[in-house]
Amino acid sequence: MGNLLVVNIGELVTPQGRRARRGDAMGELLRIRNAFLEIRDGKIVGLGPMDEAPRDFPGNVLDVGGRAVTPGLVDPHTHLVFAGSRVEEYLHRARGERYTGGGILVTAEATRAATEDELVELAVPRLRKMLRCGVTAMEAKSGYGLSPLAEEKILRAIKRLEGLAPQRIVPTFLGAHAFPPDYGREEYIDLLVGEMIPRVAEERLARFCDVFCDRGFYTVDEARRILEAGARHRLVPKVHADELAPVGAAELAAEVGAISADHLLHVSDAGIKALAETNTVAVLLPGTAFVIEEPYPPARKLLEAGVPLALSTDFNPGSSPVLSLPFVMRLGVLKLKLSPEETLCASTLNAACAIGLAHEVGSLEPGKSGDLVVWDLRDIRELFYWFGDDVAWQVVIGGEAVWASP
Ligand code: NIG
Ligand code: FE
User: 201: phi > 0 → left, psi -120 to 50 → alpha, else beta; which?
Assistant: First the structure.
């Protein structure tokens, strides 16, 4: 954990607080021109205009030469660990076939066949690429194992990755991602509830329990049963909600007090109303809508109803082979019609809230971890404009430089 003084920041932009921001507050960020930021023992201790910067600093000084600085980005929904590729399916869809989620079983077959070591080896370079894009904390799900042994193998791989990459990684159990062909439907749900969830909780392999509640996958009643079983074992509920059809999954997320409801491409008005009355964060995944060519989620409608929004890649080999959160943030502005400020809040503080990390990361303010990104830009609005320019100039975690562009 380092001491670091960052100086000559052209523009420092950050949301503030430890709770998800909603409505107009999503766009109200702290902006300091010509700023400094001071990190001691890995934590932020001060920030402000350059003329107030400390004179004698016992540690490294990073002069960023007028570039823009934001908090480290937070990616709150990824399927980081899997084996194999779905390029065939992707090319069929590119020629007009519709996405149904059926390919999950193709990835599950490849992932079951891989060893834990192989899964770790496949994921390390993905994490490296995410780091270059400015992602300093993230969530990672199981869900391509779909059996007790294979789901645990994925969660153990995630646990090992935490020690192999500089990012914070929060694990989620998504055993209820699809129905595996080697079990009956009821039989698999009984296995999830009676065996897999208790074991995952006991071994502390996950913090959240997620269910794909959608057309062709888990029904609302099935998802409720699984999420309630998770909650009994202190796994906080999360929901893959209403991605393919408006099945009432957002309403279920509100009912069970989920920390987040994710996707929401087809959320109903009743679902929006239900979410607005809770602290559930809506995690929107516009990269998925882009890749599967479905309508984008109604971001402005959700925001105006008072639902806090976060953005994420949904990185996975089927519906979102997208590693770059900056690309998703550009879709946030261009397709979801969010402002640059709302988008930045959705990709930092609100994203941290969606994975229970907002006390530690998500904003630049005293007491939080010294996680930041220096962008090779003078005007932060340009981050949302240059498609393809995804690599940060420097990335810092806990006051340590973890990536510098060559
Ligand atoms: O979040 N929606 C369900 N699961 C993933 C996609 C999984 C896949 O196609 O492999 C998602 O989009
Ligand atoms: Fe997903």
Answer: alpha
CB atoms closer than 10 angstroms to residue 384:
20
Cα–Cα distance, 119 to 220 (Å, whole number):
31
Phi first, then psi: give them for residue 201, nearest 5 degrees.
-70, -45
Structural domains of the chain sorted by starting position, each given as residue range(s) with its CATH number in brackets: 4-72+362-404 (2.30.40.10), 73-353 (3.20.20.140)
User: Cβ(314) to ligand 1 under 6 A?
Assistant: yes
Which of 80, 319, 320, 322 should be mutated for ligand 1, with most atoms under 8 A from CB?
319
Question: Strands, DSSP E only, in 142-227?
Answer: 168-176, 208-213
- Residue 243 CB less than 6 A away from ligand 1: yes
Can you give the pTM of this predicted structure? 0.98
Token pair belonging to 141: 């799900």
* Residue 81 tokens, joined: 């660990």
> For 342-361, what is each residue's pLDDT tens digit?
999 999 999 999 999 999 99
The ligand 1 atom at the shortest distance from the C-alpha of residue 262 is 1
Could you read off the pLDDT of 40-59 as tens digits, one per residue? Answer: 999 999 999 999 999 999 99
